[in-house]
Amino acid sequence: MDWWHLSEVDLWEIRQMLKAGLKAPRRLEPEAKLAIAAILTTGRKLKDLRRMSIVEYESDLDLPGCNPEGLIWNKDQISWRFIAGTADVHDARRNKSKRAKKSRGRKGVATPPVYQFVYFDVEEIVQDCLKQFPTQFSPLGKARNGPAPLFVSRKEAHITKIEQLLDTRRPVECGRPRACSRTVPSLERFLTRAMTFQYGGDLVGAMRLTGREETLGRTANYYGETFVSNAATSAKRANGILRGDEKWVPSYAPDDQRIGNSMSPVWREVRDLAEACRKYLKKTARNPLKSHKAMTFQTVALLSFATGHRGMGEALPGSAAIDEITGFCKIHDKLRQRADHARMIWVADVAREQIAIYEDHLGVLGSLLKKQDHQRVLNMVASGRLPIFSIENGAMVRLRYRALWQDLSTELGLWRPMTPNAGRHWLRSVLSGRCSSDTLHAFFGHWLLGNEPWSFGSCLDPLLYRSEIDGVLTEMLKKIRWHARDATGAVA
Question: Exposed, middle or buried, 454 (CB in 10 Å: 0-12/13-18/19+)?
Fold first, then answer.
């Protein structure tokens, strides 16, 4: 247990305190209890919750647009409605002042950011706190006349009462809880940490649901999309003690709502890409120059979606760079001048097969390339780097990775252009919730300086890391129908 975070004992004591009756029929105590329950079950900060309202509605059309976050309530159910903590929203908030300065002196008004909303059920402990309000102070009663604020007491008095309740939650025991568990920040840290470090947890999913912006997750939050149902399930699992559940079995309700980067390709797009590569290989099999182009498309696309490689250095990892026994490969696709930014990935079998096919293909290009250029290609292959190039008048012309993806999208006739990071986005979405948080950070290269997963002081188990990636990635690539193919389009 981390001494600076809430333990299971702390949560059990807080639950007992929240369920106890009011000491006085006033507004401040039930507001403090409601705030504690809301912070623990949603991960939202107190300053954000104090700006929210409760709204009674009969249909989605009745929801007001002026204050979009808070509790939405009708006769059947009560739910939370929040702005998702996506990277786009964080950037919008961070650059708000910059946009305001740029818009001065120009005609019109700056376009506001488009928010993504998440909806999830209110926990029973929160509903119990709402029912404890005296009738004259109840937010539910006031919401019948229009949007009503969740909290109306002064901020200083509100925080003082919350800390007082946390400080006196052991009425029958001597002593008091440790000081670090009696503060509002300790409540605000709980859910994000619990969702991240549970099995299958993911910091990105936690950030998007709770709206928090953690230092380690700022970069990772740009990649992929998260199913709201999976994130809500993770939050419910973390809040099991507050419900009094010893074991909680999640109910996977069908929910296709996703939050995150809108450029993250969906399954159908990836499957269409794999099929388009196959057809293009078959179509160009009789034309040596176009066949090389098709092989480049197939290899770049497959490795992008199997390893998350983004083409830094305009080269791909070759067989010489991959350990034959473990399948591990160290790549520099972040800051290539910094050794601490190298990430160790596990290369799937289908990707290794495609690399071997592409190397054989490069070996027989002697009739199309000038002798010195072909020798350069062979030297790069021997050093474990696969060059990305086109052939023009017998010369090797190196290709920029971004330009290659633009050409690929045009030649294959994709309905939405793919970006160099498309494979990385899709992989993040696929592995999220199916691998541990440590595995995700190690695979995608998201860590803080001094906490590298491959350093001497790291506790990351390489065998468990490989097992988690293999168990998910191999099956997903089969479902997408990614296969290693030769220049004729046939499966190797």
Answer: middle
Does residue 421 sit in helix, strand or coil? coil
* Same domain as 392, residue 284: yes
Domain total in the chain:
2
Phi then psi dihedrals of residue 485, to 5 deg: -130, 150
Residues 6+ apart with CB under 8 A from 264: 223, 224, 225, 422, 425, 426, 428, 429
Residue 51 domain boundaries = 8-90+114-162+185-260
In angstroms, rounded to a whole number, what is the distance separating the alpha carbons of residues 411 and 154?
62
Give Cβ neighbours of residue 1 (< 8 Å, ≥ 6 apart).
7
pLDDT tens digits for range 205-250: 788 788 777 666 666 666 777 777 777 777 877 877 777 654 444 4
Residues 462 and 324 in one domain: yes
Per the CB < 8 A criterion, the answer to whether 399 and 386 are in contact is no
Residue the block writes with tokens 């790549």: 331
DSSP assignment string, 220-278:
HTTSSEEEHHHHHHHHHHHTHHHHT-SS----------EEE-TTSPPHHHHHHHHHHHH
CB contact burial 401-413 (16+ within 10 A = b; e otherwise):
beebbebbbeebe
pLDDT digits (tens, 9 = 90+) for 39-50: 999 888 999 899
Structural contact between residues 426 and 264, judged by C-beta atoms closer than 8 angstroms: yes
Q: What pLDDT digit, counting tens, does each position of 365-423 carry?
A: 988 999 999 999 999 999 999 999 999 988 999 988 888 999 999 999 888 888 888 89
Domain boundary among 234, 260, 286: 260
Residues 29 and 23 sit within 8 Å (Cβ to Cβ): yes
Dihedral, CA of residue 301, residue 304, residue 309 and residue 314, to nearest 10? 0
Comparing 112 with 182, the larger pLDDT belongs to: 182
Which residue, 430, 481, 474, is CA-closest to 266? Answer: 430
Phi, psi of 47 (to 5 degrees): -65, -30
Question: Would you say 181 and 3 are in contact if contact means Cβ atoms under 8 Å apart?
Answer: no
Kindly state whether residue 142 falls inside one of the protein's structural domains.
Answer: yes
- Domain annotation covers residue 249: yes
Together in a domain, 443 and 342: yes
Rounded Cα gap, residues 490 and 282, in angstroms: 8
CA-to-CA separations, 407 to 245, 293, 413, 417, 419, in angstroms, rounded: 54, 10, 10, 9, 11
Last residue of a domain, one of 228, 260, 292: 260
pLDDT at residue number 291: 94
Q: 227 and 340 share a domain?
A: no
- Bridge partners (DSSP) of residue 392 are 395
